[in-house]
């Protein structure tokens, strides 16, 4: 008995390792990056130690000033000051200038540092500056998770909203959710008749139709999104056709609007809705329909009372799949969307590649992950409800 | 837990490192791609006597460079970088210090030789428009903001850098005062208010080719775009009026990625590709703005390329790198919030 357990564990070990290595570790690492606060602890360890005992009243002891001056100078010399400067500057603009100015002047400063540093820059005489450094001592911080929800720590302690002209991310998540829901709904509505037709086609035609659905799969998302850009642009075929038909006098601006984003996303994601629906419908027992007919149900009733409830698990699976992919879409909105159409993924890439602020990128990813997790949970709850009611029907 | 994670991550990286070919890699140089890089390959890289050079393109995103330095799996040697990325990367130890025993410090323009970067080429943005569509156009940012005298849509770069400077000048701030004003909350509010006024007539571009396309298709009347591309359009016969009085410019530099196994050869390559000989050859193919002083000041080069930025730089505003390092994260965030509103 024990041996078979062991053998079973061995057999699934590759799978478990794959899940661990390709899913749990990276996701765990990303989630940890969203709360990690290591820059100050790594670059200013003695300053941090000197600040631990400080009660936050008045100014910190001379030891903290001295450690700060020496460690800043050393960090500049060793070329590892940038990360820490960016970390503190992200929380309060201007910190980068203060830190670098002090680091460059470090070997001209002399004891008592509490005097010479304040002479160099009055901000060292303000308790807020030191509180900022103390709070950034790590090992974890809510800074990025708060900022990704347009919140920040208030000077007095609690949590407050960021200034109205800096608020962005909550709106961004609502927008991402809205676009994803619209795209999901459209995909489900468009995919259902397709899946239904394919499921009811006879042998050679059903596989031909399925291949036609699959063909767009073979080209990349980038190519398909670019194609929409070409089609929808100002002097593109769509506008030309509309002008030829007399629908509009002047070319309509489509690229750079929400409509273009939805159209491109629906096109890119449609196969993901068709395939799960088709696989569920293909396995449905046609005898139920005949039984319903023999009991006197008309075509309408056969569809709405028999076929639709039985195919709902496929609808939910397809819808969930489309939603999950839509939430994380980057390429299509970036190509055909306008200034007000970018989704969360655009900002994740921005923080990763341009700002090199991985904490912020990870925090946005964490919320996006929570959003998709909630969607999966909802879909599961809904499917289990349908499965039982479907069993009764 | 964290130590365990670190160990596992190390193990994964170690395995990856073993799997990657450890054999000697050709010297790899990375620039912005496009036709300019084709010309660089012909005149700069292929004329290097110190061994074969391969080149590849990137989109000026430094995230991947940081990742390769941290993972100690450096596959790029020499990179063309923008000024803010150079300074931050130098402070963080992402780039090697330039060996000025190998690279001749004296040949660069003032400020062109820094700790981690050797001056490469300048770039700039300026207002331009198609004279075929609009005989008259704005000659200053104040006129660019004047939608009664110059009706029609305009395009600016989507991002705080460059755009906020333009907004302040459009509101009447003198170029010399732009960064002093933009450092104050009142000045920042003023810049965003100026953008608010122009917004009904404003579209934003993200890629460098877009301003050209937007102007060519008539989607916008006036654009703020890269002078190099505009100049090439003019040389190819387009009827752009390029307003040099609105120039904002900066210089890119060559840097060596820290931990490069070819660091010594990389320094020799940088010495070669900033030499007057090869750089002069490059100016014959493309009106670049070299940071090599003797080429930039060569009357023959300047006469051959009337559209060289170097010829018009005197009245322009140099983009303040230190300002953007300090205020960039905050202002970019506010710009993103503004543009999405």
From TrEMBL, chain A:
| Tagged with keyword Transmembrane helix | yes
Quote the CDD domains the UniProt record gives: TM_PBP2
Localization, per the record, is: Cell membrane
Please provide the Gene Ontology terms (biological process) for this protein. Answer: transmembrane transport
State the UniProt keywords alphabetically.
Answer: Cell membrane, Membrane, Transmembrane, Transmembrane helix, Transport
Q: Which GO terms describe its cellular component?
A: plasma membrane
Q: Where are the transmembrane segments?
A: 172-196, 208-232, 252-275, 312-336, 356-382
Record bears the keyword Membrane: yes
Query: Where mainly located?
Result: membrane
Taxonomy, superkingdom: Bacteria
Q: Which Pfam families does the entry mention?
A: BPD_transp_1
InterPro entries per UniProt: MetI-like, MetI-like_sf
For membrane topology, the record states: Multi-pass membrane protein
The ABC transmembrane type-1 domain covers: 173-379
Q: Which PANTHER family match?
A: ABC TRANSPORTER PERMEASE PROTEIN, INNER MEMBRANE ABC TRANSPORTER PERMEASE PROTEIN YDCU-RELATED-RELATED
Q: Which family does it belong to?
A: Belongs to the binding-protein-dependent transport system permease family. CysTW subfamily.
This chain's protein is named Putative spermidine/putrescine transport system permease protein
Q: What organism, scientifically named, is this protein from? A: Falsiroseomonas stagni DSM 19981
TrEMBL record, chain B:
Subcellular location as annotated: Periplasm
Pfam families from the xrefs? SBP_bac_8 (PF13416)
* Annotated GO biological process: thiamine transport
Any one Gene Ontology MF annotation carried by this entry is: thiamine binding
Keyword Signal in record: yes
Q: Which InterPro entries match?
A: SBP (IPR006059)
Report the principal subcellular site.
periplasm
Q: Which GO terms describe its cellular component?
A: outer membrane-bounded periplasmic space
Q: Which controlled-vocabulary keywords does the entry list?
A: Periplasm, Signal, Transport
Q: Which residues form the signal peptide?
A: 1-24
The UniProt family comment states: Belongs to the bacterial solute-binding protein 1 family.
Protein name (database record): Putative spermidine/putrescine transport system substrate-binding protein
Q: What is the lineage of its organism?
A: Bacteria, Pseudomonadati, Pseudomonadota, Alphaproteobacteria, Acetobacterales
